[in-house]
Structures are given as C-alpha cells and as structure tokens.
Write a structure and sequence with these properties.
The chain has 85 residues and is mainly alpha-helical. Helix content is 72%, strand content 0%. Pfam families: Exonuc_VII_S.
C-alpha cells in the first residue's frame, strides 16, 4: 500500500501515522500516491477499497487544513481592516 512505502507518514515503529496528525503537505502527498496506485490498476478488490477509503480520509483532512487556513486569512484581513478604522 502507498502508506507503507511513504516513510514520512510512518512513525519510528513503522506504523502509519494517524491522518489527524498529518500536516497538509503530508496528506496531499499521500493522497497523490493513493490516486496514482488506484489509477495504475492491477490491485485486488480489498486493497483497492482500503486505498480508496484512505484516500477519502486524506481528502477530507486536506479540506479541513484548507478551511482552517482560509479562516485564518479571513480573520487576519478582518483584524487588519478593523485596526485601520
């Protein structure tokens, strides 16, 4: 599976890092690898389903990171506008 090959998403024991602990770039990179493996084909159904489920979780986490970043920018712009008045 992609996560097994991706050292940056493993802890020191070789276990897969929980998605909730991954930063945006790590999630995005693993998601790209999951998509590549699924598009390549040749996987059995169970492996494909596990990869697809992991990909869905990674995509959701990426969206959470982006929503948080968007909110921080919005808050910063609002605070900047308030200090100018």
């Amino acid at each position: 599976m992609a996560a097994d090959e991706n050292d940056e998403n493993q802890d020191g024991n070789g276990s897969i890092t929980p998605i909730s602990q991954l930063g945006y770039e790590a999630c995005r990179d693993e998601l790209i690898e999951v998509v590549r493996l699924l598009e390549q084909g040749g996987l059995d159904l169970d492996t494909s389903l596990k990869l697809w489920e992991r990909g869905e979780q990674l995509a959701k986490r990426c969206e959470e990171h982006l929503a948080g970043a968007r909110q921080r920018v919005t808050d910063a712009l609002a605070a900047g506008g308030a200090s100018e008045n």
